[in-house]
């Protein structure tokens, strides 16, 4: 996976135009309303965007029936995942994470001393909640969950996830990463944050809202917990730019764009599923904008096949297996992927 990642990065900007399917980006965004708001916000970029931060925190709060005090803004959710890792080190606790999952934030946390234990997914590549629960030890102070999970695209049954939170959050911090919930209407657990100060929910504008390059994410939590997190930011809630804040605010009102992205994503995913089926490649139906598939019955080199057609971004996972992940691009792009396979 590292080799492929470095190939993607080294090849950017690419020598020839490549179809980029490695980062679970949304090929359609930002939304038309967000683009306009971002262009307008350039003019006011000589000022710190204090009002825009307040507006966005309020607006996000409303989206989940919460308040501005339940929201902390970051330059992408990655910034905030990193802060939660650092916070756990400060509390002298260890962490438990699923394997395989979205663990980009863990090397930085390890570097500053976080001890991380992993729990394997179930055979159907779903997070093993009882394994996670059983793995919690007296010094475990953080449980990371990603729902839907990246790279597998699988979701936890909402009642089981809620029961896990109710059971674990009284004694241990849960960091629930909901980067992809919007693609398939996976229910958010935001309704629980005021009841459980130990529950933190990470969200992003990088995925369904198509603003990965604008770098804007947030965490929802109890106001007390939000204060803890913001106290670890060099300037509370001030890492996002005026332009990104304006785009995010506008994109929350552009509901038809979200519907469009979801619909196109579903169509493009179907094209990819059909190509995989034809090639005898098994896959896990995904609730996200990427697909996890297993090339063990496929004799050809799928990475080379796609690269030959100008498609970059397949990543491999699970050592000594042939599990891969590919981001779902546009309908046209997935037609090219299908053709290449
Ligand atoms: N969480 C998950 C599960 C992701 O897959 C990603 C990015 O791919 C992120 C968080 C980071 O998103 P952001 O762009 O908000 O930093």
UniProtKB/TrEMBL annotation:
<dbReference type="InterPro" id="IPR015424">
    <property type="entry name" value="PyrdxlP-dep_Trfase"/>
</dbReference>
<dbReference type="GO" id="GO:0004400">
    <property type="term" value="F:histidinol-phosphate transaminase activity"/>
</dbReference>
<comment type="similarity">
    <text>Belongs to the class-II pyridoxal-phosphate-dependent aminotransferase family. Histidinol-phosphate aminotransferase subfamily.</text>
</comment>
<keyword id="KW-0663">Pyridoxal phosphate</keyword>
<keyword id="KW-0032">Aminotransferase</keyword>
<dbReference type="InterPro" id="IPR015421">
    <property type="entry name" value="PyrdxlP-dep_Trfase_major"/>
</dbReference>
<dbReference type="InterPro" id="IPR015422">
    <property type="entry name" value="PyrdxlP-dep_Trfase_small"/>
</dbReference>
<dbReference type="InterPro" id="IPR006311">
    <property type="entry name" value="TAT_signal"/>
</dbReference>
<dbReference type="InterPro" id="IPR050106">
    <property type="entry name" value="HistidinolP_aminotransfase"/>
</dbReference>
<protein>
    <submittedName>
        <fullName>Histidinol-phosphate transaminase</fullName>
        <ecNumber>2.6.1.9</ecNumber>
    </submittedName>
</protein>
<feature type="domain" description="Aminotransferase class I/classII large">
    <location>
        <begin position="17"/>
        <end position="341"/>
    </location>
</feature>
<keyword id="KW-0808">Transferase</keyword>
<dbReference type="InterPro" id="IPR004839">
    <property type="entry name" value="Aminotransferase_I/II_large"/>
</dbReference>
<dbReference type="Pfam" id="PF00155">
    <property type="entry name" value="Aminotran_1_2"/>
</dbReference>
């Amino acid at each position: 996976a590292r080799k492929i990642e470095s190939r993607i990065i080294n090849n950017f900007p690419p020598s020839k135009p490549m179809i980029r399917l490695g980062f679970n980006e949304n090929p359609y965004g930002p939304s038309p309303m967000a683009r306009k708001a971002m262009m307008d916000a350039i003019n006011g970029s000589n000022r710190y965007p204090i009002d825009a931060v307040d507006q966005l925190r309020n607006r996000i709060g409303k989206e989940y029936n919460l308040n501005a005090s339940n929201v902390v803004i970051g330059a992408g959710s990655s910034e905030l995942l990193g802060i939660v890792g650092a916070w756990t080190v400060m509390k002298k606790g260890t962490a438990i994470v699923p394997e395989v999952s979205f663990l980009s934030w863990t090397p930085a946390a390890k570097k500053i001393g976080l001890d991380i234990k992993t729990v394997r997914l179930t055979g159907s590549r779903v997070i093993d909640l009882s394994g996670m629960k059983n793995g919690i030890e007296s010094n475990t102070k953080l449980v990371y969950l990603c729902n839907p999970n990246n790279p597998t695209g699988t979701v936890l049954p909402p009642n089981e996830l809620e029961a896990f939170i109710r059971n674990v959050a009284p004694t241990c911090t849960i960091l629930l990463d909901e980067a992809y919930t919007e693609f398939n209407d996976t229910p958010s657990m935001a309704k629980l944050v005021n009841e459980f100060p130990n529950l933190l929910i990470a969200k992003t504008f990088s995925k369904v809202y198509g603003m990965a390059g604008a770098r804007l994410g947030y965490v929802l939590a109890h106001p007390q917990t939000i204060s803890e997190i913001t106290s670890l930011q060099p300037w509370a809630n001030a890492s996002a730019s005026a332009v990104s804040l304006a785009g995010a605010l506008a994109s929350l009102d552009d509901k038809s764009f979200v519907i469009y992205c979801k619909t196109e994503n579903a169509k493009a995913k179907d094209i990819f599923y059909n190509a995989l089926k034809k090639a005898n490649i098994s896959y896990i139906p995904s609730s996200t904008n990427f697909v996890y598939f297993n090339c063990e019955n496929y004799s050809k080199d799928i990475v080379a096949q796609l690269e030959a057609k100008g498609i970059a971004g397949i990543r491999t996972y699970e050592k000594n297996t042939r599990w891969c992940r590919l981001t779902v691009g546009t309908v046209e792009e997935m037609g090219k992927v299908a053709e290449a396979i």
